[in-house]
Amino acid sequence: EDQVTQSPEALRLQEGESSSLNCSYTVSGLRGLFWYRQDPGKGPEFLFTLYSAGEEKEKERLKATLTKKESFLHITAPKPEDSATYLCAVPVYNQGGKLIFGQGTELSVKP
Amino acid sequence: SQTIHQWPATLVQPVGSPLSLECTVEGTSNPNLYWYRQAAGRGLQLLFYSVGIGQISSEVPQNLSASRPQDRQFILSSKKLLLSDSGFYLCAWSVLNLGRRASYEQYFGPGTRLTVT
């Protein structure tokens, strides 16, 4: 069964303290892995797509990497404005583009 | 550029009342459309998706229904709301590109916060 698991559930960092979020997946044939950012009371905002093991994408202080079993979202020298819930998702084969989402990691960055 | 709208932004409804949430997409044609619910916590539960006008797939049997009367319009409805229908409802769109590198990204609207009292 296709499955996506994120860890940790919550992460508290001091401003400038780098860390990583994990997304483990089990799918029958990966067709992309997506990262989203969600602020409280808002819809998820698309960040990255990764397609194959070894691929990396960067945006400001965020870097997403992908292996055959998991993806990492590395946050370098975070700022308070990086506080949000980060979600990862993978598509299910041949089901109209349906995505399976992880439960998310709630990141809090304190000044 | 593409834009997705949802309304209303917030809604408070009594148990047993009807519901109609609307989602519209601009700037794209023949999108796939999706309705999600996000209850307490962070998980997104897919409720319905549509690959075309009048084509609706239901993921979870429940008190809700969906319709797609126009290419870029998606409506979520209920005849009688339950307390358990409270939550944050999100609409999303995607345009599948099944070329050499298929594209499945979904883009979300701002959401509707529904409270059933």
SSE blueprint and pairings:
The complex is a heterodimer of chains A (111) and B (117).
Chain A: E1 3-7, E2 10-14, E3 19-26, E4 33-38, E5 45-50, E6 56-59, E7 62-66, E8 70-75, E9 84-91, E10 99-101, E11 105-110
Parallel strand pairs in A: 2-11
Antiparallel strand pairs in A: 1-3, 3-8, 4-5, 4-9, 6-7, 7-8, 9-10, 9-11
Chain B: E1 3-7, E2 10-13, E3 19-26, E4 32-38, E5 45-52, E6 55-58, E7 65-70, E8 73-78, E9 87-94, E10 107-108, E11 112-116
Parallel strand pairs in B: 2-11
Antiparallel strand pairs in B: 1-3, 3-8, 4-5, 4-9, 5-6, 7-8, 9-10, 9-11
Q: Can you describe this structure?
A:
The complex is a heterodimer of chains A (111) and B (117). Chain A is mainly β and 111 residues long. Helix content of chain A is 0%, strand content 56%. Chain A is built from no helices and eleven strands. In chain A, the strands form two sheets. In chain A, strands 2, 4, 5, 9, 10 and 11 form a six-stranded mixed sheet that branches. In chain A, strand 4 (33-38) and strand 5 (45-50) form a beta hairpin. Chain A is globular, with a radius of gyration of 14 Å. The termini of chain A are far apart. The model of chain A has no long low-confidence stretch (mean pLDDT 94). In chain B, a hairpin with a 2-residue loop joins strand 5 (45-52) and strand 6 (55-58). In chain B, strands 2, 4, 5, 6, 9, 10 and 11 form a seven-stranded mixed sheet that branches. In chain B, strands 1-3-8-7 form a four-stranded antiparallel sheet, with no helix packed on it. Chain B has strands at residues 3-7, 10-13, 19-26, 32-38, 45-52, 55-58, 65-70, 73-78, 87-94, 107-108, 112-116. Chain B has 117 residues and is mainly beta. Chains A and B meet through strand 4, strand 5 and strand 9 of A and strand 5, strand 9 and strand 10 of B.
